[in-house]
Amino acid sequence: MNLQLVLEQILNGLQLGVMLFLMAAGLTLVFGIMNLVNLAHGSLYMVGAYLATTFYRWTGSFVLGSLLALPATLIVGVIVEVVALRTLYERDHLDQVLATFGLILFFNELIAIIWGRVGLFTDLPQWLSGSLDFGGGFSYPLYRLLIVMLGFAVALLLWYVVARTRIGMLVRAGASNRMMVAALGVNIRLLYTLLFGFGAALAGLAGAMAAPIYAVQPGMGEQILIQVFVVIVIGGIGSIRGAFAGAIIVGAVDTLGRAFLKPALATLISPTAAQAAGPALASILIYLLMALILALRPEGLFPARGH
Amino acid sequence: MFRNFTQVLVAGAIAALFACTPAIAQQKLKIGFITTLSGPAGIIGKHMKDAVELALDHLHQKVGGLDTKVIFGDDQFKPDVGLQVADKMVKDDKVQFVSGIIWSNVMLAVEPSVTEQGVFMIGTNAGPHELAGSQCNPMFFTTSWQNDETPEAMGKHLQDEGVNDVYLMAPNYAAGKDMLAGFKRYYKGRIVDEVYTKMGQQDYQAEISQLRAKKPKAVFVFYPGGMGIQFVKQYVQAGLRDKIPLYSAFTVDETTIPVLKNDAVGQWETRYWSPDLKNAANEKFVSDFRKKFGYMPSYYAAQSYDGIMLIDSAVRAVKGDLANKKGMIAAMERADYASTRGHYTYNVNHFPIENFYLLRAVKDDKGEVVMRIQKTVFKDHKDAYYKECKMK
Fold this sequence. Notes:
The complex is a heterodimer of chains A (307) and B (392). Chain A has 307 residues and is mostly helical. Chain A has one domain (3-218). Chain A has helices spanning 3-34, 41-59, 62-85, 93-115, 142-164, 166-176, 178-183, 188-210, 220-235, 240-268, 271-296, and strands spanning 131-133, 139-141. In chain A, strands 1-2 form a two-stranded antiparallel sheet. In chain A, β1 (131-133) and β2 form a beta hairpin. In chain A, α5 packs across α6 (166-176). Chain B has two domains: 25-145 and 277-343, Response regulator (Rossmann fold), CATH 3.40.50.2300; 149-271 and 358-381, Rossmann fold (3-Layer(aba) Sandwich). Chain B is 42% helix and 20% strand. Chain B has helices at 2-26, 42-58, 79-91, 104-116, 129-132, 149-161, 174-186, 205-214, 226-237, 257-260, 280-293, 299-317, 325-333, and strands spanning 29-35, 62-63, 66-74, 97-100, 120-123, 140-142, 166-171, 191-197, 218-221, 246-248, 268-271, 345-346, 352-363, 369-381. In chain B, α7 (174-186) links the parallel β7 (166-171) and β8. In chain B, α2 runs parallel beside α12, α3 runs parallel beside α4 and α12 (299-317) packs across α13 (325-333). The longest helix of chain B has 25 residues, at 2-26. Chain B is globular, with a radius of gyration of 23 Å. Classes of the chains: A mainly alpha (307), B alpha/beta (392). At the A-B interface, α1, α9, α10 and α11 of A face α2, β8, α8, α9 and α10 of B.
């Protein structure tokens, strides 16, 4: 096992991690502050990917297409919040699960009606499609490296907004005690709508970045959503810091498990047994981790304060 | 008197006509066609449904010369739903044939229930080994293949080419393991590694990094549907397309080429059929299909078209007497119809004995990405299970 390969897999893990973080940030805020279980968050990711691809085709520019997809997904998010979710805040979680599951079906069919069941194809623009050579025969795809950097930049920006601005203060206050914030004269309804739209835009950003490397197709949001739920359970619900830590941990554990668990097992048990056990164990590794965290720290690694 | 006589005759004729009508009405052919129409796999179902409609057009809506009603059912990719849909078709709609079915697990749920009730099951995709071997059944026919045969052909090809150091990858479920087992039945060279990934996985970057580090001479994968799109796209983005040749089964086809486009170019696949197969039936099928639906048909479509044509040949052979099941079985065993794959025969287990070809995705002169036959790998290939079949 050489060092380059390990380094490459760590980068792969980080890349998956920041994608999960962009999804988890929105979901955890909505869940932690608005107390809303939103299964349709994956649909917003899908909408982001479709819009980015479509705008990319119209404008001919990948960057412009992705930038346009952000406000567009934000608007979709706001519409969903105003039309469908507003009535659900006071209902119990089971009703919310049912309603937002309905939204998943709605969005999948809507997308299939507008864009068809065959997925969309986006190619990376020429300037992004190469690999960056680090010397010594070690290279890494430029675009994936860009995703990692962009993910960290967004994380930093989010931290700044949540920790240092007035709106961030309201968000944190809302997470701690919603009633009190409302009683102090803050328009909590508007705050909710904005927050939801903002979460949607982050999911849209994840979708836009995923579009050139994954297949853009109906139902693409559900697969990532399950991992995102694992992230916010591990990280602690309602906490941006937790979402970031959880996402990086899940990304790394999943990637490194898929890459190195089988060879590692083969040194302990027979290769045929490792052949059978390796992939099975690798695919449940993040769930085992989640179970462990739930047993030791049921509130997650970095729970939102005041709960 | 004479006038009365005429009246009696006319009345008699009318009465006779009325008496006959129910008998004619009974001779209406009903076919239940089950596929997946919803969800991401809905694209395969669309190919199959469109092919059935084209077959009906070609037969002027009369399969076997009888008025025909085709009832489409959606199994939603679930065996239990498939079984419910089939039961309703058999019990309520009183179909004489159930056809279609993409997935092996759905087929294994549906087939016993349908054939037990004396209804024909004409599979047009799934070919689980159980039905080819121990569970074979006279009321079951398929117009496709046994699952193992396609990867067997690729194994044979790489063996013939003397390629060593092959890296194998498939999703971690029953069909994935069967596919790699089929490949290894004919490939006897060195295998670098055999990797199973999570079902429905999206990102293969970690696996591709591992693959590159092992420096194989060739890669063979089985990634159907959306997984294939992801894998091939990421394989190309990793810059491996020109470095390590990628061979596959059921991964790059006419349902995924419209999404993959240029990323598909250079892909090797094995198959029993190709749009460029030269025979009159296939040329008519491909050109009419493209004219009517505006896209290139896949093997899913070709098999489904053949399914309706096979039923047509059976009903014609018994002159529309749908009660004559023995006669229809005998007729179908002859495979006496113009199949899109050209002439083939049926083995004792009612699976085709057919050719398998090596195909490559290339750009044609119009710049369109298409699959083209490169060579014949197997001639009149039989599946590995027919000897276990004891047909009653």
